[in-house]
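User: As part of a screening pipeline, I want to sanity-check one entry by hand. Below is the sequence and the SMILES for zinc ion. Please return the complex as structure tokens so I can compare it with the automated output.
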Amino acid sequence: MQENAREPSGDTFRVCSTCRTPIAFGASYFRCSVSTCNRPRTALYFCSVPCWDAHVPEQRHRDAWAEPVTAPTRAEWEAELARAAESCSKAPGTREPISAASPDRNEAAMSEESPNRKIVSPPAAESVPREILVVVSKLKAYIRARSGFNTSDATVEVLSDHLRRLCDRAIDKARSAGRKTVLDRDFRSVLDE
Ligand SMILES: [Zn+2]
Ligand SMILES: [Zn+2]
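Assistant: Here is the complex for your manual check:
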């Protein structure tokens, strides 16, 4: 699974998560019925049912199906973005309790067996603070010990983003396995991909 092409460009709303075929604005595509495959940061998009099939063994779904969906038009997408930006800029201080409650609410909504459900609102991944997740002094000491080189401060932001992406994917693994604890093996299987 690659992390690029998450955002629309030109006429392309998304690209197929399996074969990278562009999915145009307003086009039909398929999404997975499993909520973890539809999180805002890691959502999967499929151009066809065979492409959807291809991700099932990887995600180890037990009970899943492909849902036909229509991509938004560009105008709808831009309206959606504008709404999201507006709700973010409003009341940043009140987002904490909302985001704490929303994943469960989201999951409940996603597990309803309605094939025509639209993508539900995101579990506020953006509201999680983007903190530094690595110990800067130890990272710098390691690089110095290995190479004698200095390390720029900005590297820890990149590495923290990378760790967040790994964490999100490990969370998906744990969730697909029906666990609420992320284990070392979830990270191992992410790193083996
Ligand atoms: Zn495809
Ligand atoms: Zn899936």
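Points to compare against the pipeline: The longest strand covers residues 28-32. Residues 129-193 form a domain with the Histone, subunit A fold (CATH 1.10.20).
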